[in-house]
Amino acid sequence: MSDFISALPKAELHIHIEGSLEPEMMFALAGRNGVKLPYDSVEAVRAAYSFANLQEFLDLYYQGMSVLLREEDFYDLTLAYLRRSAADGVKHTEIFFDPQGHTSRGVAFATVFNGIHRALQDGERELGITSKLILCFLRHLPAEDAMATLEAAMDYREHIVGVGLDSSENGHPPELFTAVFAKAREAGFLAVAHAGEEGPPAYVWGALNALAVDRIDHGNRALEDPALVAELAARSMPLTVCPLSNLCLGGVTDLADHPLRAMLDHGLFVTLNSDDPAYFGGYVNENYRAMQQALGLSDTVLGQIARNSFAASFLDDETKAARI
Ligand code: ADE
Ligand code: ZN
């Protein structure tokens, strides 16, 4: 890893905490909780990580979550992610969590939240990493489920900065969640949504116009629509780009063809992130490194992307200004 990338202070804005569950921890938690996994070894888990598309990944991602049952599990998962990212020069992180992936298995919202929240507090003390928490709705489930999850989150309003939209994109357009996001925004939550990861440009328009998002997660397929590119540029809309994820899920077959190049050329407000680092073979620095190598990005551009990550964060303006 180049010293320059390692030393760059950065914020991570697109990380699913459940996607940081390394196979070693998956096995340890399965043992601790008496959960039977359909694998004999850590190597067998890793060998299963070969995905043709988003859905193939999501099937394993939801299966992996089955070992997370107690508050301590969510605590250990989150603290391990914070320690690993601190080693990558991450100074601030905005973590997604998927409560419906847990409440649907009988794990209480409070168990999930308390474990993650306590780790974020301890992580800030131990490592100096600041953080925000973003609750994601699973878009393959009905909007009523998302609404009930939002209700459950109201008790934790002061500790959750925003809401997001993730899971299977195709066939689940943002407009299905218009009322949920309107209610969330009314309650003071900021908003993000995965859009244009696999879905068409219309879904990115939907995230902007129906959900009134503050950031777009991925946004790759926005490049197919010149008017949308112009709109994203005019709004200085941050995109949380995740190159190794795109490579692992077939969004690009070669990182040299990654849309980051075109995004930069169009003056879009891009950041680099890991998405689900335990599944896609790299934390944030590996994503910077991969893009540097594939696109020949200069230190100046890499430094700008790292500054963008703070500028696009949900930190307050004063804290942001001190870090950019
Ligand atoms: N949930 C976890 N990772 C995801 C991704 N890359 N896209 C959509 N939903 C997700
Ligand atoms: Zn994601």
Indicate the mean pLDDT. Answer: 97
Number of domains: 1
Low-confidence stretches: none
How many individual β-strands?
A: 8
> What is the second-level CATH architecture?
Alpha-Beta Barrel
Name given to the CATH homologous superfamily: Metal-dependent hydrolases
The biggest beta sheet is recorded as:
8 strands, parallel
Calculate the terminal CA-CA distance, rounded to whole Å.
Answer: 23 Å
Portion in strands: 5-15%
Characterise the protein shown here.
Belongs to the metallo-dependent hydrolases superfamily. Adenosine and AMP deaminases family. Adenine deaminase type 2 subfamily. The active site is at 197 (proton donor). Substrate binds at residue 276. The protein is an alpha/beta fold and 324 residues long. It has a single domain, classed as Metal-dependent hydrolases (TIM Barrel). It has 17 helices and 8 strands. It has helices spanning 3-7, 23-33, 42-47, 54-64, 71-86, 100-103, 109-127, 143-153, 178-186, 201-209, 226-234, 243-248, 260-265, 277-280, 284-295, 299-311, 317-323; strands at 10-16, 90-97, 130-138, 162-166, 190-195, 215-218, 238-241, 269-272. It has an 8-stranded parallel beta sheet. α5 runs parallel beside α7 (109-127). The two termini are 23 Å apart. The site of zinc ion has 6 residues, from β1. Zinc ion binds at residues 14, 16, 166, 194, 217, 275.
